[in-house]
Amino acid sequence: PHILILGAPGAGKGTQSANIAEEFDVEHVTTGDALRSNKEMDISDMDTEYDTPAEYMDQGELVPDEVVNAIVDEALSQADGYVLDGYPRNLEQAEELSEMTDLDVVLYLDVDEEELVHRLTGRRMDPETGEIYHVEYNPPEDPEIEGRLEQREDDTEETVKERLRVYRENTEPVVEHYEEEGVLERVDGNQAPDEVWADVKATIEDAA
Ligand code: AP5
Ligand code: ZN
What we know:
Number of strands: 7
Structural class: alpha/beta
Strand content: 5-15%
Number of helices: 9
Order of helices and strands: EHEHHHEHEHEEHHEH
CATH class: Alpha Beta
Number of domains: 1
Strand order of the largest sheet: 2-3-1-4-7
Bound molecules: BIS(adenosine)-5'-pentaphosphate, zinc ion
Helix content: 40-55%
Shape: globular
Distance between the termini: 6 Å
């Protein structure tokens, strides 16, 4: 199936996408991870304000559409089924996406704002596996993994605030757009990860 997962920064898109990719045997297409792997890519020929994605990302701003649209177009053309995470983030990207592909399910993880901040500032990543942890909610059992965990550069309190502002301004209209089209499947993302997963799984099974 073609699955889109929407939600604010920290809503659990990456966490649930990993479950979805495994259960439904689809590709996890994530613009955030793709950009983090290419943070120092030279984009100066694209007539952008800054020369690398890093300069946007570390401030919590959106990387220019031209850069991100190309990444998604390429990734989707190579994937049979997919779960798309991190895109579209504004109405222009939503328009682009509608020209690239058709969607079977549009999920929205609904999470309260103070919970988002708590999740983001406590998040840790395993640089070796890409696995997502949380110091409080989901710490690794293996002390070796614990010792190598890293914090994402944009998970500082200041950058988190800016990411949430950018989300409200640019991405909430995208959620409203799918809501108006009548295709938005809302899931209560405030629940524990396993409970969110049960709802996500059931929603995909019903819709796809
Ligand atoms: P991106 O990587 O997409 O970041 P984001 O949207 O801010 O989302 P996050 O990855 O922070 O959160 P998530 O929803 O995946 O949550 P997670 O599962 O990790 O984008 C980063 C940057 O790249 C952007 O700021 C922008 O600069 C650029 N970019 C990316 N896409 C772009 C685009 N399309 N256009 C332009 N620019 C773009 O979970 C968070 C934490 O909570 C973890 O610690 C996890 O363990 C924990 N957790 C998860 N679920 C639960 C739960 N149910 N209960 C308790 N804890 C939980
Ligand atoms: Zn993510």
